[in-house]
From TrEMBL:
GO terms for molecular function: oxidoreductase activity, acting on the CH-OH group of donors, NAD or NADP as acceptor. It comes from the Eukaryota. PANTHER family: CHAIN DEHYDROGENASE (ATSC), PUTATIVE-RELATED (PTHR45458:SF3), SHORT-CHAIN DEHYDROGENASE/REDUCTASE SDR (PTHR45458). Transmembrane segments: none annotated. This is NAD(P)-binding protein. InterPro entries: NAD(P)-bd_dom_sf (IPR036291), SDR_enzymes (IPR052184), SDR_fam (IPR002347).
C-alpha cells in the first residue's frame, strides 16, 4: 500500500495525479494545496474518496513542516513517493520573450519564479525528507519542463517563458545536488521529470496569446515532426507514473528526463 504526496494538487496536472492515484484504493494519497476547502469541495463533487488534503504554500516552510507532521500521523512517520508538481509558471512573460520587456519587470518575474520554483522546491524536499527516509519506495520526482533544456532552446530558438524556464533549469541542478547527497549514501531516488506538453488550459486566452501559442506549437512541430499536439493530463500522468515506478537510483538519480524516461520532450 504505497503512499503518495502530490504538491500543487488543486488543478491541472496535479489534480490529474490525484484522480489517477486515488482510483486505486490500495494507495494512500495526500494532496497538498494552498486552499483546502475549495479542493475538498471539488473532490466531493467529482466523487473522489480517500484523499487526504493538506494546506500549505510551497514558499511557507513552517506550513510545509506542519503538513509533514499531519502526514506522519496517518502513515506512522513515513512517505513512499513525493511528486513535487507545484510551480509558478509565470506572469506576462509566459507569452513573451525577454526582448521588449523592461529590465525591472524581467527581474521581478525572475525573482518570483526562483522563489517558488527553486527555493520552494528546497523547502518541499526538506520538509518531507524525514518521511521519505522512513518510506519503502524512497522516491522523489520533481516536475520540470523540456523548456529548461539548453540544447533545445538554442537549437530551435525557443525564447518564450524565460523566468519559468530559467528557474526550472536551476531546479534541475538543485535536484542533482539532492541526488549527490542522498542517492548513494541513503538509496533515495531524486530526479526531475517533464510531463510533456499537456493541455491543462481552462481560461480564455487573448487573441495575442493564441497567436503566440500557435507559433510555439509550430516550433514544437519543427523539433519533433512526429508530434501530434498536446496530450491530456491523464495521458501525461500515466506515462510519468510508469517512469517513476521503474526508476532506480542507479539509472535515474539526479536525471532530467521526459515522460518517456529519456530526453524526448515531445
Amino acid at each position: 500500500m504505497p503512499s503518495y504526496l502530490i504538491t500543487g494538487a488543486s488543478r491541472g496536472l496535479g489534480y490529474a495525479w490525484i484522480k489517477h492515484l486515488s482510483a486505486d484504493p490500495s494507495n494512500t494519497v495526500f494532496a497538498l494545496v494552498r486552499i483546502k476547502p475549495s479542493t475538498e469541495e471539488k473532490l466531493a463533487q467529482d466523487g473522489l474518496q480517500g484523499v487526504h488534503v493538506l494546506e500549505a504554500d510551497v514558499t511557507d516552510l513552517p506550513a510545509l513542516q506542519a503538513a509533514a507532521q499531519e502526514v506522519s500521523k496517518i502513515t506512522n512517520g513515513s512517505l513512499d513517493i513525493l511528486i513535487h508538481n507545484a510551480a509558478l509558471v509565470g506572469g506576462p512573460s509566459a507569452f513573451t520573450t525577454v526582448i521588449g520587456q523592461s529590465p525591472e519587470d524581467l527581474a521581478s518575474e525572475l525573482t518570483d519564479s526562483f522563489h517558488s520554483n527553486v527555493v520552494g522546491t528546497s523547502y518541499v524536499l526538506n520538509a518531507f525528507l524525514p518521511l521519505i527516509r522512513a518510506g519503502k519506495e524512497k522516491k522523489i520526482a520533481v516536475i520540470t519542463s523540456g523548456m529548461a533544456d539548453l540544447e533545445l532552446v538554442n537549437k530551435h530558438s525557443i525564447a518564450l517563458a524565460t523566468p519559468y524556464a530559467v528557474s526550472k533549469a536551476a531546479s534541475n541542478l538543485l535536484v542533482g545536488k539532492y541526488h549527490a547527497a542522498l542517492g548513494k549514501e541513503e538509496g533515495i531516488l531524486v530526479f526531475s521529470i517533464s510531463p510533456g506538453v499537456v493541455n491543462t488550459q481552462t481560461g480564455e486566452l487573448t487573441e495575442e496569446q493564441k497567436k503566440v501559442i500557435g507559433g510555439m506549437m509550430a516550433q514544437f512541430a519543427e523539433v519533433a515532426p512526429h508530434w501530434k499536439g498536446p496530450i491530456t493530463a491523464e495521458e501525461s500522468v500515466t506515462k510519468q507514473l510508469e517512469v517513476i515506478q521503474r526508476a532506480t537510483v542507479e539509472e535515474f538519480g539526479g536525471a532530467f528526463v521526459s515522460h518517456y524516461g529519456n530526453q524526448q520532450w515531445l
